[in-house]
Amino acid sequence: xxxxxxxxxIGSGPSGRRxxxxxxxxxxxxxxxxxxxxVGGVSVHTGTIPSKTIRETVLNLSGWRERGxxxxxxxxxxxxxxxxLMGRLHKTLEHEVEVLEHQFHRNGVQWAHGTARFVEPHxxxxxxxxGECRRAEADFVLLACGTRPFRPDYVPFDGSIVLDGxxxxxxxxxxxxxxxxxxxxxxxxxxxxxxALDVAVTLVEPRATFLDFIDKELMEEFVHELRxxxxxxxxxxxxxxxxxxxxxxxxxxxxxxxxxxxxxxxxAGRVGAVxxxxxxxxxxxxxxRGRLTVDAQTMQTAQPHIYATGDVIGFPSxxxxxxxxxxxxxxxxxxxxxxxxxxxxxxGIYSVPEISVVGMSEEEVQRRGIAxxxxxARFRExxxxxxxxxxxxxxxxxxxxKTRRLLGVHIIGEGATELIHIGQAxxxxxxxxxxxxxxxxxxxxxxxxYKIASLDAWNKLQAxxxxxARPVAEEPVVEGE
Length: 481
Ligand SMILES: Cc1cc2nc3c(=O)[nH]c(=O)nc-3n(C[C@H](O)[C@H](O)[C@H](O)COP(=O)(O)OP(=O)(O)OC[C@H]3O[C@@H](n4cnc5c(N)ncnc54)[C@H](O)[C@@H]3O)c2cc1C
Ligand SMILES: NC(=O)c1ccc[n+]([C@@H]2O[C@H](COP(=O)([O-])OP(=O)(O)OC[C@H]3O[C@@H](n4cnc5c(N)ncnc54)[C@H](O)[C@@H]3O)[C@@H](O)[C@H]2O)c1
Description:
alpha/beta, 22 strands, globular, binds nicotinamide-adenine-dinucleotide, NAD(P)+ transhydrogenase (Si-specific) activity, cytoplasm, flavoprotein
């Protein structure tokens, strides 16, 4: 292995690999250090891709998407086992890793298997599994080391009954009942995925509300769906104790209630994976959750030649945004000034049903004192929805009364994470309600919901403006919407 590199990247998750390939495209020599046996990071091995693959498998094998048509008892496969879920998972991961390795290879990115730590601000030691040490010197360093599950001492993790979010991927048997602690994105995704498998799920969250960044009206819809399929919600009480009693997980809450289940998933957040790095040797330090502070524009840490990207810098902690951060960091390091990223990025929660949002929620619009109008479309009112047998799903759009500009799009239901990108484009291109009113959409599609929701808002805007303001021939008020 050569000794000096233009860039050394620590971690091969979304931000590390994007940063590495971008640097290679600029003709720079790049070394990626990864402590995992294969490249891909949390995203490929324990996070995004595994959870989404399991979700897809569950939806397919359970016949979830067809139940609107054939009834709640419809199943494609009667007895779904942990093996059924893991089979598809391993194939998908294998394919993902192959694509990444090939990407590194054809771009001339070198990668070393081992744990990286700073010796000096420009010198990194790589410790292999056998304890062998190598050193690499770098002009620039990209810290893309990600996170690991938060595992407080009071939780008796045992890898089979009480698990963290990484260990849930190694289960060999499906539980009949599951308690999920923490109603963050990970907790909610797994809770609803297991519930779609007919596992009796209880979701525990110390706060009285959850997923607070999602529009309240959408969350009301979501909570209604969860209750409708008997997902137990224990909100507003902290966890007092977790124990394994007679081979089952027992969770006692501060309010005196208890939940007992076959398995317990502790998903109360993640912490930066910085322990091994010896940050002080590079003149850096992390906060109590292992997060590093960076300049939001350039991704530089307190040491200008050391950049940090991805989950280790905290919010929004998404694979999607991490990739972009990695690329921006590398461009900055090598003297390119990319334009600032657009104001709004989409957020996709792959729960069952899925949720996706872009722009401002109704609560945020109110906080900012913007005069607004909303439009709603329900998927069951679209022809595509009828064809697909959808009995739930909705889209909510917010528009400024003054400028007519789109302020936010909020979707719950089938295809939400794909549909959102139409709204994202219009939002970031500063489009108005007129885009949706004037354009024709493919029919029958779920995207037609954009048209329906916009017409709903448009009708309200016209009604509020009064008869004098109503245009006559070209833009008739649409009846029945
Ligand atoms: C269960 C789950 C589901 C998720 N679902 C989604 C989703 O649907 N959509 C989405 O956008 N995001 C999702 N995320 C978030 C997404 O996975 C992260 O935002 C993303 O992985 C962060 O990328 P990263 O660049 O920080 O690196 P990571 O993917 O966190 O990878 C970091 C890598 O660095 C390595 N490393 C750490 N320390 C060292 C060291 N000292 N030496 C060498 N290597 C080291 C680690 O082994 C790891 O491979 C999910 C996360 C989880 C946990
Ligand atoms: N679809 C996606 O984009 C996706 C999916 C999964 C994860 N992620 C990312 O991964 C990151 C981590 O997700 P997460 O859900 O683990 O963390 P989180 O921080 O989003 O949520 C943790 C939840 O646990 C609760 N909690 C905190 N301490 C607790 C305790 N001691 N006992 C019980 N509950 C407690 C919190 O109130 C919160 O609701 C997120 O930032 C998210 O962006 C994204």
